[in-house]
Amino acid sequence: MDTTTDGLKKAAILMITLGSEASSKIMKMLPDNIIQKISYEIANIDYVKPEERDTIVNEFIEMQQAREYIIDGGIDYAKSLLNKALGPQRAKEVIDMLNQIQLRERPFDIARKADLQQLTNLLLGEQPQTVALILCYMQPEKAAAVLAEFPIEQQSEIAERIGTISHTSPTIITKIEKVIENKFSNYVENKTEAVGGVQTLVEILNSVGRGTEKNIMQVLEERQPDLADEVKANLFTFEDIITLERSDVQKVLRDVNKDDLLLALKGVGEDIKDFVYSNLSNRQVETMKEDMQFLGPARLSQVEEAQQKVVATIRKLDEQGEIYLRRGESDVIIS
């Protein structure tokens, strides 16, 4: 639960909205210090505006949906479903908010971040009830992998204890967490975090101007041709529009600004123009060809800017799950 002042006020309003019966059941599961803070907020709320109440209830529902999606299929699965339900911007806000809250509220965060083998080695010497408690707070897939490393006779004992845990004193959790953190501290302090890499570079290049992208790729091809090939295999450019499925191209053409498309096509070969035309009606093609004749010469920078706008539309549809882009050797489907 978010324990900032704003978070406590939201929790208090939610409790008031849910009513005394439901709220009392929730309160019983909270630590004493949080109960005191929320109770103080409730006591100091005289009136709740209907729109404020509705916003907080909707936020609570969205957060719960996000939690369930993450538990069911992980963060990418949650993002995909939330994108469909809430749109990409709101989905990102909910995921970010949930991540911030979980970082503050969930015990044994150090165990969730630890290397699987190191975690297993350290837990093998712990009591079954301690292992069971820690696994309850871990990612299901990681908890399953840890459990599988224990001797068979211990697996069933730990599983039984997990199944029978209902409530645990916050004091006990804190004590166990401190012991575990002390054991993990040396490992975590020395652990390096994965940053950078090809995918990070691709994401950056996907956001820069076309001229900057070309300059960077040209230097990469000269200095590190293998890296350049790997980046190009994952980088979507305007010319890659021919790799899209017909149905996806038609979605793009419905969303893209027609003037941008017209200008973007001035800088490509006939094969790409023909591909785009093949996804338009005969009347639309005739109109575009006429407009292109009247358009006259255009600066390269203008053409590249228009191509970048079209690519931005393609990437937006990709992020929303409306289309999918081929990257590297396999198709990445975002639905």
Automatic annotation (TrEMBL):
InterPro entries according to UniProt: Flg_Motor_Flig, Flg_Motor_Flig_C, FliG_a-hlx, FliG_M, FliG_N
Residue ranges annotated for the Flagellar motor switch protein FliG middle domain, each copy included: 117-189
Set out the biological process GO terms recorded for this chain's protein. Answer: bacterial-type flagellum-dependent cell motility; chemotaxis
One GO cellular component term of this record is: plasma membrane
Q: How does it sit in the membrane?
A: Peripheral membrane protein
Instruction: Indicate the segments forming the Flagellar motor switch protein FliG C-terminal domain, all copies.
Output: 220-325
Q: Does the keyword Cell membrane apply?
A: yes
| UniProt keyword annotations, A-Z | Bacterial flagellum, Cell membrane, Cell projection, Chemotaxis, Cilium, Flagellar rotation, Flagellum, Membrane
- Chief subcellular site? other
Every copy of the Flagellar motor switch protein FliG N-terminal domain together lies at 7-107
- Protein family: Belongs to the FliG family.
Q: What is this protein called?
A: Flagellar motor switch protein FliG
Q: Name its species.
A: Desemzia incerta
